[in-house]
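Section 3.1: Structural characterization of target chains.
Under the original work plan, the team committed to producing a structural model for every single-chain target entering the pipeline before any wet-lab resources were allocated. The record below documents one such target. The sequence was received from the expression subgroup and is listed exactly as submitted; it comprises 167 residues.
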Amino acid sequence: MDTSRFAKQLKLAGRGAAACLAATLICVASVGAAPGEHPGIRLVDNETNGMNLTPAQQQRLTALESASRTQSADLFSQLQQTRRKLSDVYRKYDLDAAAAARLNQDLNRVQGQLLDLRLSDQQQLRKILTPDQFAQLQSSIQRRPRPDGGHGGPGDPSHGHRDWTPR
């Protein structure tokens, strides 16, 4: 994900809630997805090894991961298209404020859908895993290497987020 372009678009949109979401999504995208991928629940095999998952749990996790990635990819595609349209509106000297407002609303709607998807993913994850398995997964995520060579997910204090879970 091109974080500088993403941040610029959010600045142009001028929404406080969108800016807060941007920080979350940037961390999620940088840790939870490889370059060019969209974040979603992403469980690496070595993170679930040793958790004593039943075959049914493994199947449910795989289905959740697949559905989450598909849905979030669709939503991120919508975000990119809407950001491009908004950027086009802002590039013109004669500002079409009504069009910009509609596009801001579209951005907020899709970002809200992403947050709703994340909440749903988190609820499903807790229905699949036992509390001990969930704790093991959280511990494994904290040890996950970051793309910048460090360790720890966005729950790592260096990221400023304490409530991150797998995406």
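Residues 3-159 form one domain.
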